[in-house]
Amino acid sequence: MEDTRLRIAEAAVELHGTLGPARTTISAVAARAGVQRHTVYRHYPTESELYAACSGLFGRRHPFPDIDAWAAIENPRERLGIGLDAIYRYYEGTAQMWTLVLRDREVVDAVESTLTPFAEQLDQAVKVLSSGWGARGGHRRLLSATVRHATDLATWRSLAGEGGVSRTQTVELMSALVESAAGRS
Question: Across the chain, how many H-helices and E-strands are there?
């Protein structure tokens, strides 16, 4: 029974990562898992339950980088470089899935709730990477917004994913932008 549940969740992960949630049907999940549609519904009665299983499996197989490890680094420049490098490395392995899931969040109701852990991790990353710069007032808001921009999948995609910029160069570019926002250019 657990093997069947896992095969169904694996099929959903594969299809969401290649077609996207909006283009993935229960029939396609069943066919990919080697089961009948009613078997998918027996194990996952609602779309939300299937998406939660899919999201959980994907998250276990592709864990977000260890934010606590960066928080222990006192120097904000060093912390930023290590953190951005880790996030960009993560995107290198997960961008296809995230691009499709984020694209479909507006049209598939069950997707939004599965994005909460990812959004929370990004929020925590921004908080950690924005700390320790000594920025105040308007610079602090600008710094936080710039770090959010630097950690965004769309930023990575435009530079490294589609732009052909290396991960090292992307880290350097975004680090320079963040340092400027912090008032340390």
Answer: 11, 0
